[in-house]
Amino acid sequence: MIITEINTSRAGDKYETTSTVNGYTKYMKLKIRNVGPNDFGTYRCVAKNSLGETDGNIKLDEMPAPTTAILSEMAMLNRSLVFI
């Protein structure tokens, strides 16, 4: 018999963790709200059981926001070409 169990917890308005157990498998998710400069970096996930311990790293990198000024100028240029 497979039992599915879902648990969610919150640490204020910033973080939310969700763990889902499905049979012998457990999935965990970390949600970060209102991501800011202090949130970028490496996060570590550690899993332990009677057989031992393992871990994994997830790196959250900042990406520059796309510029819209160039796209707007191109859109205006395309409109003027259409109407000529």
What are the key terms here?
three-stranded antiparallel beta sheet, 5 strands, 50% strand, Ig-like_fold, Immunoglobulin I-set domain-containing protein, two-stranded antiparallel ribbon, alpha+beta
Please give a structural write-up.
The chain is an alpha+beta fold. It has one domain. It is 18% helix and 50% strand. The protein contains one helix and five strands. A three-stranded antiparallel beta sheet has the order 1-2-3, with no helix packed on it. Strands 4-5 form a two-stranded antiparallel ribbon. A hairpin with a 2-residue loop joins strand 2 and strand 3. The chain is elongated and about 65 Å long. Keywords: Disulfide bond, Immunoglobulin domain, Repeat. This is Immunoglobulin I-set domain-containing protein. Residues 26-60 form the Immunoglobulin I-set domain.
Task: Give a summary of the structure in a few sentences.
InterPro entries: Ig-like_dom_sf (IPR036179), Ig-like_fold (IPR013783), Ig_I-set (IPR013098), Neural/epithelial_adhesion (IPR051170). The protein has 84 residues and is α+β, with helices and mostly antiparallel strands.
